[in-house]
């Protein structure tokens, strides 16, 4: 179970970092408006509309992976065994024996505790 949680957490972190990177690379919807009026270059790596389709689809896939990993981590994080009573402290109290303190047989009075010369 621990290995599964570690794998889910790693996939979630990788998808989050990749999604942030892809979102920062994408242009906004108003970026093409400036290029139409001649204020910016319109050349891109994927063509005129290819980058928007590729990057937006990849971002959607990564967002889905991130969302599914988050749901699975939340499910496994709140799953509890049916045997437990619900409290962590009660389970610890049952498994650890409590030491028994035995009082002394003859209680010492206050005068007996004063050292003599």
Automatic annotation (TrEMBL):
Its main location: membrane. InterPro entries: SecG (IPR004692). It holds the Pfam family SecG. Coiled coil: none annotated. One of its GO terms (cellular component) is plasma membrane. It is found in: Cell membrane. It is a multi-pass membrane protein. The chain crosses the membrane at residues 54-76. GO terms for biological process: intracellular protein transmembrane transport; protein secretion; protein transport by the Sec complex. GO terms for molecular function: protein-transporting ATPase activity. Keywords: Cell membrane, Membrane, Protein transport, Translocation, Transmembrane, Transmembrane helix, Transport. Involved in protein export. Participates in an early event of protein translocation. PANTHER family: PROTEIN-EXPORT MEMBRANE PROTEIN SECG. Belongs to the SecG family. This is Protein-export membrane protein SecG. It comes from Albidiferax ferrireducens (strain ATCC BAA-621 / DSM 15236 / T118) (Rhodoferax ferrireducens). The lineage of its organism: Bacteria, Pseudomonadati, Pseudomonadota, Betaproteobacteria, Burkholderiales.
């Amino acid at each position: 179970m621990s290995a599964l949680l570690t794998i889910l957490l790693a996939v979630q972190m990788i998808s989050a970092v990749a999604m942030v990177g892809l979102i920062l690379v994408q242009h906004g919807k108003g970026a093409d408006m400036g290029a139409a009026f001649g204020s910016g270059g319109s050349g891109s790596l994927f063509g005129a509309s290819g980058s928007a389709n590729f990057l937006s689809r990849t971002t959607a896939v990564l967002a889905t992976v991130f969302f599914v990993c988050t749901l699975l981590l939340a499910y496994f994080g709140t799953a509890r065994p049916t045997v437990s009573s619900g409290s962590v402290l009660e389970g610890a109290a049952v498994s650890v024996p409590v030491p028994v303190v035995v009082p002394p047989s003859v209680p010492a009075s206050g005068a007996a505790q004063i050292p003599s010369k």
